[in-house]
Amino acid sequence: MDLLAKNFPLLFITAFFAILFLQSGLDKLFHYQDNLTYFKDHFRQSPLRSVTGLLMPVITVLELLAGLVSAAVFLYILFLGSCTFGLLSPAISGLALLALFFGQRLAKDYGGAASLVPYFLVAVFGLWLFIG
């Protein structure tokens, strides 16, 4: 029980990122055309306007990867009590968030970019917990 209690913060962080990125990635996958239309409009006046169609599958795969890895790490910690691969969850999640932040900044959606900062702080805190 002590091992589980010790790993509670790590479980919460990995569960958080599993939910966040699986929902977002699956939404992009199952509603691909709607999301593509939205993003093409969102980036129409940014330097990314000509590559939005190419970047959409990249961010979708990155989000799905972050969600799947986070879910796997959650289960690994929960059932095995080990954090061996735990660093992958906040690392890949942080990378996905940086990609989203970069896009929002280029689109000059500063409010959207700012809304990603708390998520990124969770990723940095997760990295700190897994390393420490």
Sum this structure up briefly.
With 132 residues, this protein is mostly helical. It contains 7 helices and no strands.
DSSP strand tally: 0
Number of helices: 7
The count of domains is 1
Tell me what portion of residues adopts beta-strand conformation. under 5%
Q: Helices and strands, in N-to-C order?
A: HHHHHHH
SS-based structural class? Answer: mainly alpha
Overall radius of gyration:
16 Å
Calculate the mean pLDDT score and round it. Answer: 93
Distance between the first and last residues' Cα: 20 Å
**Principal-axis shape:** elongated
The level of helicity is over 70%
Poorly predicted parts = none
Major pleated sheet: none
Describe the fold and architecture.
This protein is mainly alpha-helical. Helix content is 82%, strand content 0%. It has helices at 2-6, 8-30, 32-42, 52-80, 88-106, 110-115, 117-131. Helix 5 (88-106) packs antiparallel against helix 7 (117-131). The protein is elongated, with a radius of gyration of 16 Å.
Label this structure with key terms:
132 residues, mainly alpha, 7 helices, 82% helix, 0% strand
Describe the SSE topology.
Blueprint lengths: L1 H5 L1 H23 L1 H11 L9 H29 L7 H19 L3 H6 L1 H15 L1
